[in-house]
Specification:
- By secondary structure, the chain is an all-alpha fold.
- The protein folds into three domains: about 120 residues, Rna Polymerase Sigma Factor, Chain: A (Orthogonal Bundle); about 35 residues, no CATH class; about 55 residues, Arc Repressor Mutant, subunit A.
- Helix content is about 70%, strand content about 0%.
- The protein has eight helices and no strands.
- α2 crosses α4 and α3 packs across α4.
């Protein structure tokens, strides 16, 4: 039985710590290598697609189709509109693929196209008064607004609270519709998707400071619209 000295480290503990550190470093290296391989594979697919390989483009579409549809749905909240944005986005990608210069990841470039298509859609929708009605809530877990997902709105056993929650959701939807398309886009990318301001700026092709100002204006308008609500 080994007895360590009063002031010395236990050799077994030291060896265990070294082994743990070594495993951590090895896993980190493997993760970096896997990420690098994925990027290299993605770039190879993009280059093939740029050269006219339709199969390579179809692989890219299948790789990102769910993310694109989910992003579109988060931004416009209507499945039929999200499908239109999905189709238009990939059409733009196909037409403009030759312009991709590998200065950012393909996903970042794709994400930027989707947000721009969605932004155009929101601008068109804002200009049509008949489309300003709040989006109805789906009791089975459909699209809901950010504030309406908070815990206090989920007390299903209280009919009065349910009614208040529905009214709150409708007023929030109405308040969001009164934001400018860019303000709404920034607000939802921040609060629905949890993106950082710098990432939002990259997606929208603008600066982090501009995004911060848009978010500030959106938040101020929403607070003013919802003032007095409890």
């Amino acid at each position: 039985m080994h007895v360590s000295g009063t002031g010395g480290a236990d050799p077994d503990v030291t060896r265990q710590a070294i082994n743990t550190m070594g495993m951590s470093v090895a896993l980190d290296i493997e993760a970096r290598q896997a990420a690098a391989a994925k990027i290299a594979e993605e770039q190879a697919l993009v280059r093939k697609a740029q050269a006219g390989d339709r199969l390579a483009f179809e692989v890219l579409v299948r790789r990102f189709d769910r993310e694109v549809l989910r992003l579109a749905l988060n931004l416009v909240h209507r499945p039929e509109d999200a499908r239109d944005i999905y189709q238009e986005s990939f059409l733009r990608v196909y037409k403009n693929l030759h312009r991709f210069r590998f200065e950012c990841s393909f996903y970042t470039w794709l994400y930027r196209i989707v947000t721009n298509v969605a932004l155009d859609h929101l601008r068109r929708r804002t200009s049509r008064r008949e489309d300003q009605a709040p989006v109805p809530e789906d009791a089975e877990g459909g699209t809901r607004d950010f504030f309406d997902r908070q815990p206090e709105q989920r007390a299903g056993a209280n009919p009065e609270r349910n009614l208040l929650g529905q009214e709150l959701g409708e007023q929030i939807a109405s308040a969001l519709n009164r934001l400018s398309p860019r303000e709404r886009m920034v607000f939802e990318m921040k609060h629905y998707q949890g993106l950082k301001l710098r990432a939002i700026g990259d997606m929208l092709g603008t600066s982090e400071e501009t995004v911060k100002n848009s978010l500030f204006r959106a938040t101020r308008k929403l607070r003013a619209s919802l003032e007095g609500m409890r």
